[in-house]
Design a protein that fits this description.
Number of strands: 7
Order of helices and strands: EHEHEHEHEHEHEHH
CATH architecture: 3-Layer(aba) Sandwich
CATH topology: Rossmann fold
Number of domains: 1
CATH superfamily: NAD(P)-binding Rossmann-like Domain
Structural class: alpha/beta
Shape: globular
Number of helices: 8
Largest sheet: 7 strands, parallel
CATH class: Alpha Beta
């Protein structure tokens, strides 16, 4: 993937992995548009990375996803890259959830942002991307797509679904000339799931440096550290990782 001279829509770009990618893609010479739900965080990101374009959007809502695409294409008709990075992680025990719709809304939102939004945005943008030069869709999954963490069951399941969807989408879009890539993060020291939960994890800058270099080298699916190992693991190795991570026997 050529990192320069692109026009990129990057979801969830105000913090964490998204902001680290935005910083590097801007430095490489691309226009970068980020979106998120909190305008204050988007403005902070814009101050840290001059030249970022920001849109306040709730990706959990289909109507807002469609509106985002209309606005971005009107403002940036040269858009040729979509990076589906936005995600949330909730930790819970299913048996402890109250049996009411209000309690379910948090779980529904996690599914919508993590899995529904990447599919919807891709579907909305493919007709445009197929007419652009060097079009690419990049989906961000997780090492938990391969060996899930039981404490984050929906997050793990949505990331497994993103991985599966990415493989199918890559095959479908070959005739259209649209590249489909996948970033597979391990645990990264960000606020995903809540502040302080990932202080043990790999540094976001080291992770982003490696990922961007490997995408530039032409790789289609890239991990880092433990996620690089698990994405290529055998079934026996995946089962062993699952047992270790979840404290099973």
């Amino acid at each position: 993937m050529n990192l320069s001279h692109n026009t990129i829509l990057l979801t969830g770009g105000a913090s964490g992995i998204g902001l680290a990618l935005a910083r590097r893609l801007r430095a490489a010479g691309s226009e970068v548009i980020i979106c998120g739900r909190r305008l204050d965080k988007l403005r902070e990101a814009q101050q840290q990375v001059p030249g970022l374009h920001i849109y306040e959007t709730d990706l959990a809502q289909p109507i807002e996803r469609a509106a985002l695409v209309r606005r971005v294409l009107a403002d940036f008709p040269a858009l040729n890259v979509l990076i589906n990075n936005a995600g949330i992680q909730n930790r819970f025990q299913l048996a402890d959830l109250p049996p009411d719709l209000a309690a379910w809304e948090q779980q529904r939102e996690e599914i919508a942002i993590n899995f529904e939004a990447p599919i919807h945005l891709a579907a909305l943008l493919v007709p445009h991307l197929r007419q652009q030069v060097s079009p690419v869709i990049i989906n961000v999954s997780s090492g938990l797509a391969f060996a899930p963490m039981a404490a984050a069951p929906i997050y793990s399941a949505t990331k497994a679904a993103v991985h599966s969807f990415t493989m199918s989408l890559r095959q479908q879009l070959v005739p259209l000339g649209i590249g489909v890539l996948e970033i597979v993060p391990p645990g990264v020291n960000t606020d995903l799931g809540g502040p302080g939960l990932h202080t043990w994890a790999v540094a976001v800058d080291a992770f982003a440096d490696s990922i961007v270099a490997r995408l530039a080298a032409g790789e289609e699916e890239v991990g880092y550290g433990t996620s690089e190992a698990i994405r290529q693991a055998s079934r026996a190795e995946i089962d062993a990782r699952f047992r270790q991570m979840n404290g099973v026997g």
